Amino acid sequence: MRLARAGVPGAEIPVVGTGDGWYDLRRLTPDVDGAFLAADGVHRTQEALLASTLPRVDDPSRFSPPLARIGKIVCIGLNYVDHAEETGATPPAEPIIFMKAPDTVVGPTDEVLIPRGSAKTDYEVELAIVIGRTARYLDTADEATRYVAGYAISNDVSEREFQLERGGQWDKGKNCATFNPFGPWVATADEVGDPQALGVRLWVNGDLRQNGNTSNMIFRVAHLVWYLSQFMTLYPGDVINTGTPAGVGMGHPAGFLRPGDVVELEIDGLGRQRQTLGSA
C-alpha cells in the first residue's frame, strides 16, 4: 500500500495506491500526516480498502511530498561502506547525526535550486524512514521496526563547500531551500518487506552515478531507529534519511550539479523522482 498526496500545490488530496489503482483517502483523513499515522491510519486504510469504501480516482498527474507537516528530519552521514571509502573517511563507530529543517522538503518532481554562491551542490539518493509510533528509549533494535510506518525516497541535496569548508556544523550545507525532494509516496512497511534489500540508483543527465543497495548500510534501519530513540523522541511523522551509497558528485569525476542538469533517482518499490536544477 502506498500513501501519497496528489494534485496541484496547495490543493493536494490524500490518496492511497494499491496494485489496481489509486483511491481517495478523504473519507478517513484530511491529509497524510503524523496525526493520521498516530491514529492508526495505516490499519484503518487497509480496512477501508478491504471493505471497498474508498472512491477510486484517476492516476495522479503530480505528486506532492507524501507527508504533510513533517516533524523533524534526522539524517545519517557516511552510512554506506562504499561512500565512506570514496570520501576517504573511516567508517564511523556510531551513527553520524545531523538535522534538516522540514521546510527543505519539496515534491519528487519539483525544481531544486542551486544556492547563491554555490560551486559544489551535490546529490544523494537515500532511503527515508517514516516513523508511525512514538519511540523513546527503545530497549532493543529488535523492536524498532514496529515503530516504522513506511519508507520513501529522499534526495539529500547538499552544498559541500558550505558543509565542509566553511566551519561549524554540517547543517549550513544541508538546509538550503528545496534541498530535500521527498516521495512520490510512502510505501507501508508491510509492502516493502526487508528494507535492507533495496536497489538504490541515481542518474544525472542520463548518466548512472549511484548504483547501490541498502544491504551495504553500516547501520541498518532497525539499529538507527533504536539508536536515535536513546537521544531524542521520535514522533509519528518524523523522517530519518539513512545515508547514501557511493557515486556522489564529491567523489565522482563528473563533479557537481549545474543549472539545467536533470537528476533522476529511484529505489526498488518506492517509485522515482526527477528534478531539474535551477538557480536561487
Provide the descriptors you would attach to this structure in a database record.
alpha+beta, 5-stranded mixed sheet, 10-stranded mixed sheet, 19 strands, 14% helix
Explain this structure.
The longest helix is centred in the first third of the chain and has 10 residues, at 41-50. With 280 residues, the chain is an alpha+beta fold. 46% of the residues are buried. The mean pLDDT is 96. It starts with a strand and ends with a strand. It is built from 6 helices and 19 strands.
What's the short version?
14% of the residues lie in helices and 31% in strands. With 280 residues, it is an alpha+beta fold.
Give the mean pLDDT. Answer: 96
Please state the structural category.
alpha+beta
Radius of gyration over C-alpha positions, nearest whole angstrom: 18 Å
Major sheet strand order: 4-3-2-1-14-11-10-17-5-6
Q: Helix-strand pattern, N to C?
A: EEEHHEEHEEEEEEEHEEHEEHEEE
Number of DSSP-assigned strands: 19
So what's the overall shape? globular
Helix run count: 6
Distance between the termini: 36 Å
Q: Unreliable segments (pLDDT under 50, ≥5 consecutive)?
A: none
Q: What is the helix fraction of residues, given as a range?
A: 10-25%
